[in-house]
Amino acid sequence: MTEDSPDPLELIRKSVSGHEIFEKFDKFVKSAQDVDFDRLFEDVDHTDYSLGDWVEAMVGFDEWLEAEKVESRPFSVMVGYIHCCTMVVPQTISSPNLKVIVIQSLTEFGFDAVSDPQL
What we know:
about 120 residues; mainly alpha
């Protein structure tokens, strides 16, 4: 991000439908770096989903991790997982809810936040 770039959190705040969603998102994103936000914005741009949809999916992901008692919140890995979820969605007239897709994938396939990435 450059000096002229808008604040990533401000862009995210404007994209969500309610203050509660942003607060839930903000609580675990504070450790994210600019490069993580760059990846998020780039991935959003390559899908049919809005930034608000992605934020809602991230919050759902966080809630799932909390229910599974997973402490780690690897922001960029979570973004990558959501991006993969967008790639397996069949092309239809209306896109299914991204948060629902992510939760279904997490339930079916799980998420190991502490494993080494596979090559």
